[in-house]
Please model this.
Amino acid sequence: MNLLILGRGKTGSLVADVARERGHQDAVLCSADNPQSAALTPEKLSKVDVVIDFTTPQAVLGNIEACVRAEKNMVVGTTGWYGELARVRQMVEETGVGFLYGANFSIGINLFYDAARVAAAALQHQYLGQIFERHHAKKKDAPSGTAAALQKIIRDACGTELEIISFREGDVVGMHEVVLNSPNDTVYLCHDSKSRRGFAEGAIRAAEWLAGKKGFYDFKDVWREM
Ligand SMILES: NC(=O)c1ccc[n+]([C@@H]2O[C@H](COP(=O)([O-])OP(=O)(O)OC[C@H]3O[C@@H](n4cnc5c(N)ncnc54)[C@H](OP(=O)(O)O)[C@@H]3O)[C@@H](O)[C@H]2O)c1
Model:
């Protein structure tokens, strides 16, 4: 496929590496190449099969609007714009393009979410739970978005809000644990990231899956089909 990757940052650069490894043609644009989404006209996108966005919350909505206007299929990994989700969904469905977004493109994390949803049943059987998350010392925000997502999944599944305990230490890429403790035993669920490559591989698989499709998709609902 011909892929256009928006964002040459930590994740976009890896997405470009994985695209080439999987035999795709790609071009990568940074902010200077695409001010106010100027590089996303129908003419400039005419040979592109799918656009992939790993930019910023400030840039992403302009990019989405331009791609939808150009009727170009798009995968969006950028987060921080979900307040506009309903409007984007309507735009996508009216135009009839293919659009896939996701807060986390790692297959392992999505599997972990499903495992946590199932394990939440323990909280109705005298188990007490906690979420632990560990990241490198330079990570500014806490708790992580992934820990917050785990907390919401468990709350939606069984009505209990688990405490999140955050650690910032060394160069840990990202470790998340759900621990469920009863007087009789302890259940440990753990996901330990080794690199950001899982995100990049998920994004390229998503683009391959979306090629030629129409509709509005969330990665967490469709990753099993990829
Ligand atoms: N869904 C997932 O699995 C997943 C995984 C990782 C990250 N993310 C999200 O993806 C986004 C990017 O993360 P990151 O860590 O890669 O950030 P990053 O290293 O800061 O990179 C952001 C990139 O976006 C570029 N950019 C800004 N405006 C642009 C525009 N109009 N057109 C093209 N490029 C533009 C920046 O270019 P300049 O440097 O030239 O300004 C920079 O290269 C964040 O929202 C993050 O939360 C999602």
